[in-house]
Amino acid sequence: MDLNFKPIEAGDIEAISKYFCRRPNKTCDSVCLDSFLWRDYYHVQFAVSDGKALQWLMEEDGVKHSAMPMCTQEELPHYFYEMVDYFNKVLKLPFKVYLADEEAVEYLHLRESDDFEVVEQEDLKDYLYEGEALRTLAGKKLHKKKNHLNSFLKEYEGRYEYRRMGCSDRESVWKFLDRWRADKGEDAEVHLDYEVHGIHDLLKHCCEIGTLRMAGVFVDGELEAFTIGSYNPYENMAVIHIEKANAEIRGLYQFINQQFLINEFPDAQLVNREDDLGQEGLRRAKESYYPCGYARKYLVLQKNFDPEERKETGYDKISGGKGEG
């Protein structure tokens, strides 16, 4: 089977971007930036099949898995089963898809199949919001957010600057990240270090990654918040991959959240702010913006494979998640 997998690198982004956003998919994985950001965490490799589809090979805790192919919806069944064959015949392993989007699961009728087990990964669903609601913060539900925003505007009047950022701002972001990571302490989740490393990689190669959009807020000349996003034109959806701010500055999160959408995604109908990792604090924060829906994700496990071999390779495990948006 002619699938030549290689690790994903910054120089690949332009070439592989054309395979994304070609079918319904509202998850954060529908855009290519997430794959690069978490490439070390998941040991991400890709292969181009027939010049029509992008196939994935990943690994976590020593267990190999894949993701849904990046292709058109009509060609999804063909390339899905191509990877089933690759796992079974080349890797001699049962097929496993991690973070499968709901649209693909439905289109492939995997829930009705006798060959696959489908398990919703409840803590890893992405939060979806109406773009206009987050840009205006209008209405009773978002009144508290508007108050926080107004507090920031009043207290820091004349002292703040929202700025679109690029490669030349990497030193400011790295300095901010050092402070932010130090505040989390030594007992913070291991994914945070991978997230910081991924952001460093993005900034080192941002000139090669045309899909990246980044902005920051400077207060008294110091970077106090920054955010990174990208766009899914098929869904008319902004994806917010990273948003960090000095939590001691009231209203700063609300300000950068709103201004990033106004300035970088003025017409986006949907906003994906990624998952909550099952963390109660993060869940409350995301729910407080009143999502209009969720992009649900699923673990897909092949059932018709030798059970002893499945046990030995660890495929009875249901994996955890990555990082915060």
Describe the structure.
The structure is a single chain. This protein has twelve helices and 14 strands. It is α+β, with helices and mostly antiparallel strands. Helix 7 (143-155) packs across helix 10 (252-264) and helix 8 runs antiparallel to helix 9. The two termini are 37 Å apart. The model is unreliable at 310-320 (pLDDT under 50).
Task: Spell out the key features of this protein.
single chain; 325 residues; alpha+beta; seven-stranded mixed β-sheet; 14 strands
Entry summary:
This protein is an alpha+beta fold and 325 residues long.
How would you summarize the topology of this molecule?
Blueprint: E1 6-7, H1 13-16, H2 33-37, H3 39-42, E2 45-49, E3 53-60, E4 63-65, H4 76-90, E5 96-101, H5 102-107, E6 116-120, E7 126-130, H6 131-136, H7 143-155, E8 160-164, H8 170-184, H9 191-204, E9 213-219, E10 222-232, E11 237-245, H10 252-264, E12 270-272, H11 280-287, E13 293-295, E14 297-302, H12 307-313
Shape: globular
First-last Cα distance: 37 Å
Mean pLDDT: 90
Low-confidence stretches: 310-320
Widest sheet: strand ordering:
8-9-10-11-12-7-13
Structural class: alpha+beta
Give the helix proportion (percent range): 25-40%
Strand content: 15-25%
Provide the succession of SSEs.
Answer: EHHHEEEHEHEEHHEHHEEEHEHEEH
Radius of gyration: 20 Å
The major pleated sheet works out as: 7 strands, mixed
Strand elements, count: 14
Q: How many alpha or pi helices?
A: 12
